[in-house]
Design brief:
The complex is a heterotrimer of chains A (435), B (293) and C (188). Chain A has 435 residues and is an alpha/beta fold. Helices cover 24% and strands 25% of the residues of chain A. Chain C folds into 2 domains: 18-120, Orthogonal Bundle (Fumarate Reductase Iron-sulfur Protein, Chain B, domain 2); 128-184, no CATH class. The model of chain C is unreliable at 1-30 (pLDDT under 50). Classes of the chains: A alpha/beta (435), B alpha/beta (293), C mainly alpha (188).
Chain lengths: 435, 293, 188
């Protein structure tokens, strides 16, 4: 039996891998970053249940690590493909961690002593990491990795503190790239998405005004494992933010500065984050400025109703036109029209959170040319038919699941992951070479 | 550098101080202003709400004059610059309208081809002359002074047509002021409208709009407001007394300058030839700090 | 031409223009001239999000003026209401609505189209425009010279500042004639 290749180690990739592995099929899980987990690992809680995100994700991640049938390749990317369904020949390039995974215990001592700091991708740029770092506390595999562009040894030939200090002697600067050849029967693409960068929307002042954040940055701010340990310190002066506004559809549903589609989960995650704020500080004022409330899933409308009635989150129908900063206090004024009553008003808040669009991952183009897949007009992977074959692609044997082919939330990604696992298994058994 | 000088209506009839300041500083910057003989209104104010063809005709006719002079055309007024830019845009796409306009223009012996280069005040000082040339002519730097820049709506919007500066975070006027040795500061409402188009229909609203901007400038303790558009200047400067009474705040005493006036003072020219006598706002204190009086 | 009666109007939805379909069947509802101009302006895709009104300096200060409502009335076929009221003359042409609209609708251009329609129908409009047009036809520029006074209340004119005479068209009559002809034309 040939193995299956799963590209992308987010919740969709993890779920697909587990489904296949539990059936007895071997899986190669290829992930670009140093740890699997994806965006779900960065979230604080999930809607509509308000489950702690990493708490429900980590068991699945550990299961992937321990499962006999799953081989995880982190810091790896797919660079070549040949063949057909049932008999794909894939080239995977493994980038060197500069740390021996078999020896590293994940103690973190190297990271403590490393002198070089860089903005942390996991903390959405709000916090910092070192040149040698662990992706996050629950990383799988829990192995340190060196960012060679930042490391003093690789850039200037000095330091080597981590090697001296590692109690397990795991640091190995001599590690080189490694190319692996795999022969798989089918491929599942689960590479996920990115967040829109709202710097292009000048009227909201992201990048100019310190207290304007994106939703993912806010998730890290409010999360207990974030840069402020979950205290709502606003970036400009560290004061506790009491009056917070959410602006919906930033970069979505627009013909200018963004994409024309709806990002599907922003209405819900804004409500979730609003409830989180209320849980942290019941006396705070939270307002969500929306165009429509898209609460289509199971339990979604009830979640929003509770946010309004029990938690006291305010919802205003009106897309704000401008954010103005007070140069002294760095407080923000939101100019909006309450379109339900037709009045133009101003609200003064401490912090503004922009609910940014879910946009195609920047590597989609590269991967689509390697795998010979079509991209749609926005840059997401295109499916064979939007109604009757929503997880198949133009290439037989290659399936897509999760947000790599369009914005969707976690339950949808998990369901699609299981669907692609079933399709893969079907291919596996159909094209099985009889020995 | 030689440019065809398009004067517009308001500057010639009302804001003559602005014209005086421009004509007197240009020789110091090695720029020669060639008057456009036969120039008329750009058509924006009287015609844009009435009749598109009359508007495009008025604009295209002036551009035809400059084309014949074979020089780029400098406009001082934001509104005129937008009028010419829009006309150029429309007549590039609509060949039928262009033919109609050219038929009328040809009666005066002119022809509009659409190849004219338009120069706005920002583009002249910031892009064409640039930091080095401006700093080179400054003999009395405006040290210690902090101004607010008012770029004006029509110089920054709509961004679909190429405008002299960015629509949400315009910086060119700020930099031009900084090159004179002064500091600038962003104030809330920097990109807001002065309201001058409403001057006859809803005078009170105009005062409120402009008054809010002046209030923000005052609250930050800035030494003055700087603009390049005669319509905006008229409201902020000539009408400052009226603004005070409408918004009931007599403490709003903000010096308002045309950029070219500040540039003239920094070069070391006398206030009288820069038309500074005609500014109605309390500018004397600022001028004495520059050592101009 | 036969007119059918419809019980209810569905006005907006997708980019497939319901707006266009109606005017083919019910030309009495939308004036053809106005329709031709407004058709290019995408008014029917407006989501009524309110970004235009929230940026509008006039909407913040004057009750009854709101770019969003103007577009809504266009979509509902209520241009007559807009043409009769004076509301379209209170736009200050700051262009923020045009800049900010996520659907690339320009309430400012719609307002200009409505203003031109008002003029063509000979309806009431602010008289300052007539004065400016009269001055342009007589002198080539839109206003008469104003007395300029210094802060010390002294009079100054162009000559005292060393400024040349005001520019005007070499052949004022030809210019005025062209303007008059263009004003008389009714655009189709």
């Amino acid at each position: 039996m040939k193995p299956v290749l799963v590209i992308g180690g987010g919740i969709a990739g993890i779920q697909a891998s587990l489904d296949l592995a539990d059936r007895g099929i071997n899986v190669h899980l290829v992930e670009k970053t140093p740890s699997i987990g994806g965006v779900m690992a960065q979230l604080d809680k999930t809607f509509p249940t308000m489950d702690c995100s990493i708490c429900i994700l980590a068991p699945k991640m550990i299961e992937c690590l321990r499962h006999h049938n799953i081989t995880i390749h982190t810091q790896s990317e797919v660079i070549g493909l040949q063949g057909n369904v049932g008999d794909f020949f894939v080239k995977v390039l493994e980038h060197p961690r500069s740390v021996d995974a078999k020896k590293c215990t994940g103690c973190g001592l190297c990271s403590e002593k490393c002198p070089v700091k860089r903005p942390s991708d996991f903390q959405a740029g709000l916090g910092q990491r070192k040149a040698i770092y662990l992706a996050f506390p629950q990383a799988v595999p829990l192995t340190a990795t060196i960012d060679r562009d930042a490391c003093l040894w690789f850039t200037k030939g000095v330091c080597k503190t981590c090697e001296k200090i590692c109690p397990a002697n795991a640091v190995n600067y001599e590690q080189i790239e490694n190319t692996i050849d795999l022969n798989v029967s089918s491929i599942i693409v689960a590479t996920g998405f990115e967040q829109y960068n709202p710097k292009g929307i000048g009227e909201y002042g992201y990048g100019r005004y310190k207290n304007v954040l994106t939703a993912l940055e806010f998730e890290r701010l409010v999360c207990a494992s974030g840069p402020t340990s979950g205290i709502l310190n606003r970036p400009s002066d560290g004061g506790i933010a009491h009056n917070i506004a959410f602006i919906q559809c930033v970069g979505s549903r627009t013909q200018t500065n963004g994409y024309s589609y709806c990002s599907s989960s922003c209405c819900m995650y804004a409500t979730k984050e609003a409830v989180l704020i209320k849980e942290h500080e019941p006396s705070s004022h939270v307002t969500i400025y929306y165009m429509d409330l898209r609460t289509f899933g199971k339990g979604f409308q009830g979640f929003v109703d509770r946010a309004q009635s029990y938690w006291g989150v305010k919802y205003v129908r009106g897309r704000p036109g401008e954010i103005i900063e007070d140069p002294n206090t760095k407080n923000l004024t939101i100019l909006y029209e309450n379109t339900e009553v037709g009045k133009v008003e101003k609200d003064l808040v401490d912090m503004v959170i922009l609910c940014t669009a879910a946009v195609p991952h920047r590597d989609n183009e590269k991967l689509s040319s390697v795998l010979d897949l079509r991209l749609d007009e926005f840059g997401f992977f295109d499916t064979k038919d939007p109604i009757t074959a929503p997880i198949e692609t133009n290439m037989q044997g290659i399936y897509v699941c999760g947000s790599c082919h369009g914005p969707r939330d976690i339950p949808e990604s998990v369901a699609e992951a299981s669907a692609t696992a079933a399709k893969s298994a079907e291919d596996e058994f159909r094209f099985m070479v009889n020995k | 550098m030689k440019v065809a000088f398009y004067p517009g209506c308001t500057i010639q009839t009302d804001q003559i101080g602005y014209e005086a300041s421009v004509r007197n500083i240009m020789p110091k910057l090695n720029t020669e202003l060639i008057d456009m003989e036969g120039a008329s209104c750009c058509g924006f104010s009287p015609f844009s709400s009435f009749n598109e063809a009359a508007w495009y005709y008025s604009s295209a006719r002036n551009m035809a004059i400059a084309e014949r002079m074979n020089l780029p055309m400098l406009t001082l007024c934001n509104g005129c610059h937008l009028s010419f830019t829009e006309t150029k845009h429309v007549l590039t796409k609509d060949q039928v309208m262009k033919a109609k306009i050219n038929e009328k223009i040809s009666r005066e012996g002119l022809i509009y081809s659409g190849c004219l280069e338009l120069i706005h005040v920002f583009e002249l000082f910031h892009d064409k002359l640039g930091e080095d040339k401006i700093k080179h002519v400054v003999t009395k730097p405006l040290t210690g002074l902090k101004f607010g820049a008012h770029p004006g709506c029509h110089a920054i919007r709509p961004s679909k047509l190429i405008r002299p500066d960015d629509s949400e975070n315009p910086k060119k006027l700020d930099e031009m002021i900084q090159w004179l040795g002064a500091e600038t500061m962003d104030y809330p409402g920097k990109i807001d409208c002065c309201g001058s188009s409403l001057a006859s229909t809803s005078g009170k609203t105009v005062m409120e709009m402009a008054g809010e901007k002046l209030k923000n400038v005052k609250n930050l303790g800035l030494d003055g407001l700087v603009t390049t558009c005669p319509f905006c200047f008229k409201i902020f400067d000539n009408r400052q007394r009226a603004i005070q009474s409408v918004i009931r705040d007599t403490s709003i005493e903000i010096p308002v300058f045309y950029y070219t006036q500040l540039l003239g003072l920094a070069i070391g020219l006398k206030p009288e030839i820069l038309g500074l006598d005609l500014n109605q706002s309390p500018i004397d204190a600022v001028i004495s700090r520059i050592g101009g009086l | 031409m036969e007119y059918k009666r419809y019980k209810y109007i569905r006005v907006k939805g997708s980019r497939i223009s319901t707006y266009g379909r109606f005017s083919e069947r019910r030309p009495y509802l939308i004036k053809q001239r106005l329709h031709n101009t407004l058709k290019k302006m995408n008014a029917e895709v407006c989501d009524q999000c309110g970004k235009c009104s929230s940026a509008c300096p006039v909407a913040a200060r004057i009750d009854g003026f709101s770019p969003r409502q103007i577009i809504a009335k266009i979509c509902l076929g209520k241009e007559d209401e807009l043409l009769k009221s004076g509301v379209i003359w209170t736009c200050t042409s700051c262009l923020k609505c045009k800049e900010r609209c996520p659907e690339e609708i320009s309430p400012y251009d719609v307002i200009l189209a409505l203003r031109r329609e008002t003029i063509k129908e000979g309806r009431q409009h602010p008289t300052e425009y007539d004065e400016m047009i009269k001055t342009v036809i007589e002198t080539g520029i839109a206003m008469q010279p104003q007395p300029a006074r210094t802060r010390k209340r002294e009079r100054k004119d162009r000559a005292s500042l060393g400024l040349p005479k005001i520019q005007k068209p070499k052949d004022q009559e030809k210019y005025a004639e062209a303007i008059r002809e263009l004003l008389k034309e009714i655009e189709s």
